[in-house]
Write a sequence for this structure.
């Protein structure tokens, strides 16, 4: 495990130093999850890392209110989620799909098969992007195995039943579109 | 591979994305930099505010000191001017002579009997040097010309009319002279009738 002794946050006030240590613990614990959440929206490692940094900067700015946060994971994922959606307005994830699909295609297959597989993966990503926004959001969040329905509902500010319904509709619609396009 | 499998595979790939190496360290380093910058900014802001306050205070003290000095300077000047009158016999000379001031400025020793006093601005008129006084500087008044002397004599001669007001005899003489002059020049003096007719006949001879 990575040691973070040399990355202690130097805060002059003793009171805020405690909050800084808490923020450092959150970085260690939730950076990977936030990166995946941001990457599912942006599909760019660089952009996703920027989102993680921005999210923890926000946390640092509100370090005095950390004690009032009931579910830290949901709170952090929601921050990263909203930041990723904001950033998505400036970039087009479709432009990043080629690089992402290359990581999915196996290297031990012939080139023509790899090309066809990459094309199918790009089609799936394209159909995901074509889903209605609420369904797309639920589908992407459901890909994160760590998040349950209740947490997804809290992140999206919806009820659990609505979240389940949206997820069901998203999967059905995506299946239909992919089957119809075949 | 069916489309359903492809969909699940893409979603699984999104869920299994590996975070870049040293992500946590980079994030922590950035947070640390932000905290340091913010604390430095906070500290520099406080320092700037303190420096500004100190500068303003010093400026105010300087202005106050200058005003105090000017006020004290005027009082010292007054006291110095009064010093020779109120001094005892042991202080034969308290006010510095200009030559003594010059000698003091040049660093020379003061002469015996001359005491050093607070320097005040000398507002006395400049004394005339001896060489200028011998040569009559500034030039004396020029003598009056003939016309100026005549004007002066006329101006100093008493007015006869004014004096006559106070002397009854002169007043009567003056009144008689003025009455004669009035009658001599009076245009409404009565004219004789025959003279009028004579003049009319001379002017209109055709009517006769």
């Amino acid at each position: 495990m990575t040691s973070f002794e040399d990355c202690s946050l130097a805060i002059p006030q003793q009171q805020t130093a405690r909050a800084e240590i808490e923020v450092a613990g959150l970085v260690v614990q939730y950076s990977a999850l936030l990166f995946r959440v941001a990457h599912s929206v942006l599909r760019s490692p660089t952009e996703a890392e920027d989102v993680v940094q921005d999210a923890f900067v926000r946390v640092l700015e509100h370090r005095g209110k950390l004690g009032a946060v009931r579910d830290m994971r949901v709170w952090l994922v929601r921050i990263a989620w909203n930041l990723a959606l904001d950033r998505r307005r400036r970039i087009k994830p479709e432009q990043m799909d080629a690089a992402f699909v290359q990581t999915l295609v196996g290297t031990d297959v012939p080139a023509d098969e790899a090309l066809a597989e990459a094309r199918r993966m790009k089609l799936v990503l394209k159909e995901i992007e074509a889903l209605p926004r609420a369904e797309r959001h639920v589908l992407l969040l459901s890909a994160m195995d760590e998040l349950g329905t209740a947490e997804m509902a809290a992140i999206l500010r919806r009820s659990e039943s609505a979240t389940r319904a949206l997820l069901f509709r998203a999967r059905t619609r995506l299946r239909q579109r992919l089957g119809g396009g075949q | 591979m069916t489309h359903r499998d492809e969909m699940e595979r893409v979603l699984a790939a999104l869920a299994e994305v590996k975070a870049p190496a040293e992500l946590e360290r980079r994030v922590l380093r950035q947070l640390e930099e932000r905290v340091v910058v913010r604390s430095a900014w906070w500290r520099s802001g406080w320092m700037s505010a303190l420096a500004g306050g100190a500068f303003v205070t010093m400026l105010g003290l300087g202005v106050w000191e200058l005003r105090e000095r000017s006020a004290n300077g005027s009082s010292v000047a007054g006291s110095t001017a009064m010093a020779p009158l109120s001094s005892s016999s042991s202080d034969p000379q308290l006010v510095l002579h200009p030559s003594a001031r010059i000698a003091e400025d040049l660093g020379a020793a003061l002469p015996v009997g001359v005491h050093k006093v607070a320097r005040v601005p000398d507002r006395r008129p400049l004394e005339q040097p001896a060489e200028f006084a011998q040569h009559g500087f500034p030039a004396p008044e020029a003598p009056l010309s003939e016309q100026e002397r005549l004007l002066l004599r006329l101006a100093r001669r008493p007015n006869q009319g004014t004096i006559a007001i106070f002397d009854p005899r002169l007043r009567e003489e003056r009144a008689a002279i003025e009455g004669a002059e009035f009658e001599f020049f009076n245009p409404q003096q009565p004219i004789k009738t025959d003279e009028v007719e004579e003049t009319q006949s001379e002017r209109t001879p055709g009517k006769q």
